[in-house]
Structures are given as C-alpha cells and as structure tokens.
Amino acid sequence: MDPTEENTNKTVDIYRDTWVRFLGYANEVGEAFRALVPVSMVWASYAVATVYVTADAVDKGKKAAVAHGENSGKTTRVAAAVVDTFVWQALASVAIPGFTINRVCAASLYVLGRATRWPLPVRKWTTTAIGLSTIPFIITPIDRSVDYLLDSSLRKVYGGGEKHE
Predict the structure, then answer these.
(1) How do residues 59-78 score in pLDDT, each as one tens digit?
(2) How far apart are CA 120 and CA 128, in angstroms?
C-alpha cells in the first residue's frame, strides 16, 4: 500500500493527533508559572486541562458506541471506554504531572533562595524556566506508569476495555 494512501485512510483523532492535545498540558504550564501569576490563573489552567480530559473521554465513549452498534453489552463497553479514558487522562495529563511540576518548581525556588543571592524576580523566572523545561521529560514516564497502574487495577475489573493509546 502506498504510504500516502495509508495516511489518507487513517482517521484523525482530534484529541490525540492535533494541536488540541496540548490543551491537556495546560495545567503543567500553569504550575510552572505559579510563582509569577495569580493563583486564579493556575486554577484556570486546570480548568482547561479538565475540559480537555472530559471532552476526550466523551469522544471515546461516542466512538465505542458506534463501534459496538446494537450489540449486547454496548452500554458496558461504552462506560468502560469513558471511564478508562477519563481516569487515564486525569492521572496522566492532570493530577500527576501537575503535582510533579508543582514540586519541582517549589523545590527549585527554595534551593535558589538558599544557594544564590539572586533577586526574587530572577529566582521566580528561573523557577518557571525549570518547570517548563521539565515537562517534556516527565510525560513518557508518567504515561507508562499510569498504563501500568491501570493495567494492574482498573482494567482488570472490566476486562481490559479500550486501552489509551
């Protein structure tokens, strides 16, 4: 098969294959900027990420409903797809990365305060830069860890369901 044909036949998942996916990282960016912006902006970044997670879960539920048609067990399969996607995204895109970036930034601000004589604005901007630069390094390990966690727990309850890809 011609590679161009393969690309045109593949369905694009707006929540995983387009720029929309970056909305799931909004809270990590918010946490990185916590030292510089009002806390309401940080919470707003969590709202953006939560809307993304919810929209992706609903989308996967709709796709599961179409895939299972009128087969018996359709409701269970749809529920499993929604729950799996929502829990995976909530952990891998919001809770764990948000906590991680928050702690990295808090620790770096503390260490910079103890180890340097830099003025507070410089320490805050440095902390933000450290937080932002940490994001690409934490994504894959967190994703794999959440896959392992769900494979070892929730996915056993409903027999695997739709695994996050």
Answers:
(1) 999 998 998 888 777 888 89
(2) 12
Amino acid present at 152:
S
Q: What share of the chain is helix, strand, coil (3-state, %, to 5)?
A: 80, 0, 20
Distances in whole angstroms, Cα of residue 47 to Cα of each of 30, 34, 125, 160: 10, 15, 24, 29
Whole-structure pTM value: 0.85
pLDDT at 43: 98
Length of the chain: 165
Task: Answer whether 91's CB lies under 8 Å from 145's CB.
Answer: no
pLDDT class of 1 with cuts at 50, 70, 90? very low
How many Cα atoms occupy the beta-carbon half-sphere of 110 within 13 Å?
Answer: 6
Q: Which two tokens stand for residue 43?
A: 């919470």
